[in-house]
Structures are given as structure tokens and as C-alpha cells.
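TODO from last week: model Carboxymuconolactone decarboxylase-like domain-containing protein.
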Amino acid sequence: MSNDNRLALGDAFPAAFKAQAAQTQALWKRAEEIGVGRDLIELVFVRCSQINGCAFCLDVHVREGLKAGLSTQKLSVTAAWREAGDVYSEQEHAALALAEIACAPARVPFTMEEQAHAREVLGDDAAALLSWAAICINGWNRMHALSATPVGG
């Protein structure tokens, strides 16, 4: 798709873009308050962006994940995290499960056991935060996909 055909949704509706950005800022603030590391949130952002096929967000959040301390190994096998053995910690497994649940809300009734396990591993505050992180990045993924935001731009 050429740039001539793009509808940059953030430019077309700046108040909605600003509200989405405020949600992201609220996530970072809450993460700091409850001690959830940026690395875990970036891992959620990467997995959701993979599922949603958002190249722009993948580019951003893989780089941010590296800055936050995620290894290239973790980032390179995120799409196959269930098969990656002990590459991921128990907390990372729980966060990735929550990411997938948030990307497929119609399947939530079938994933209640997995969600309950994530709550046990992470605690309710972190599980809620990471669920909100997945919800938030889903919005960004859709906005960038519909805007045809180019990678790097």
C-alpha cells in the first residue's frame, strides 16, 4: 500500500491517540508501583504484536525489549514460547499466556485454568497489569495496522 492511501488514524483523531498514549503511561506508572519489570511488559507487547501481525509494533518492542534486558534468544523464539522449554521463567510463561488470552477474547472461557495459573504465579496485581498491557498493545497494533504505519516510521 502506498503512503497516498494511508489514513493515519492518530492524525485523523488526535484525542483518541492521546487517550491511548495516556493508557500506556498509566501502565508504566502502575508497573513501577507494583514492581513489574519493563522486560516482562515488553515480552507481552512482542507476543501480542506477533499474533496481531503488526510489523511496526514488533520493530519497536523488540528493540525496547532488548533495552529492557530481554535476550535475543527469548525475543527470537517468543512465537513458540510453549515449546521453548526453560528459556522462559515461570513468570514469563504466565505473562505470555495472559498475552495470548487477551488477543483471543472469544477463547477466554476455554483458558480460565491458564488464567488462574497466571494469577497464582504473578499475583492479582501483576496479572491485572499484564492483562491491561496486552489490551493496550492490541489497540496500538490495530491502530498502526489500519494506519499502515511503516516499519521505522
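Done. DSSP finds eight helices and no strands in the chain.
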